[in-house]
Design a protein that fits this description.
Length: about 300
């Protein structure tokens, strides 16, 4: 399965029966509510909105939606909203979690709480799926939002999370580029050593049906022509499905540059928890939040 753009992904999800429920923490936010209510209108999801009831109702009316009071859980403070939303997920009331109008730190504090959170004991990582005008299919970037400077062990967890998502999206044999500044191993650059080790693990079957190339530079990842010039042979060149970045700084800068300078679109979620988590920034557009909902919905089996 190949998704060339978000329209194809949305069309693949929109056949849902509405049985999947989004739990939104801090739902008194216009773009968040617009995205959730649009997905509900399209029959994809149901929802539980946690936050300031008056604000939620007012925004709903402004968007021409009549939100039932039974779908709203009152929470006047952000920490209360985050706690109640996570609690609803823990009790099996929702299929995925979404952050609305609140600080990311407040939200994640409840998600990762060892006693009352929704972790599974493994690595939680962020996946950004991007539609890039100059690339022929949707591409994933990880991790640009959770783990600051991942170790080799953490990179293994990041890859496993990414592969689970892509397989749930019915993308067979994903091609992963463990991207670094260069395409050769340099002991002074830990990310190149890690990339080579990850490739060895993949070739030995650790990750199942996929292919990891590394170390590989960004130009070789995106361009077959560049790979031909440098005589670098790999099935990943010019056809990568997932870019494993060496650290959060690289991933964050790269994805934001693609959005603001190259007109890319994105959807993002946190993987590795008991349910998928939509974690947009407070300044994200309706479109980004809507695509992120669709991404989470598509991977719930």
């Amino acid at each position: 399965m190949v998704y060339r753009d978000f329209d194809e992904l949305v069309n693949g999800v929109s056949c849902g029966d509405g049985s999947k429920t989004a739990v939104v923490a801090g739902a008194h936010d216009e773009h968040t509510l617009e995205a959730v209510l649009k997905a509900h209108e399209n029959g994809v999801i149901d929802y539980i909105l946690v936050g300031k009831k008056s604000g939620i109702s007012e925004i709903g009316k402004a968007l021409s939606y009549d939100i039932k009071e039974t779908n709203i859980v009152e929470a006047s403070e952000d920490d209360e909203a985050a706690f109640k939303a996570v609690e609803l997920i823990r009790k099996g009331k929702g299929s995925f979690l979404m952050k609305g109008k609140m600080e990311t730190g407040t939200f994640l504090k409840e998600v990762v709480n060892k006693e009352t959170g929704i972790g599974k004991g493994g690595i939680m990582s962020h996946m950004c799926i991007m539609e890039i005008p100059t690339y022929h299919k949707l591409m994933g970037f990880t991790d640009g939002g959770m783990i600051i400077d991942p170790t080799l062990t953490e990179k293994i967890g990041i890859i496993e999370n990414a592969l689970e998502l892509f397989r749930n999206l019915r993308i067979d044999n994903p091609k992963i580029a463990a991207v670094t500044a260069i395409e050769t191993v340099n002991p002074k650059m830990r990310e190149t050593v890690d990339a080579a080790e990850l490739k060895k693990m993949c070739l030995k079957g650790k990750f199942g049906d996929c292919y990891i190339e590394g170390p590989i530079s960004c130009d070789l990842t995106f361009s077959k022509e560049a790979a031909m010039i440098k005589k670098f042979e790999s099935p990943v060149t010019g056809d990568a499905d997932i870019m494993l970045v060496p650290n959060i700084t690289t991933g964050n800068i790269m994805t934001k540059a693609l959005i603001y300078l190259a007109g890319a679109k994105m959807a993002g979620c946190i993987l590795g928890a008991k349910v998928p988590i939509v974690l947009p920034s407070r300044g994200s557009s309706f479109e980004e939040k809507y695509y992120s909902i669709m991404l989470c919905t598509a991977q719930i089996i």
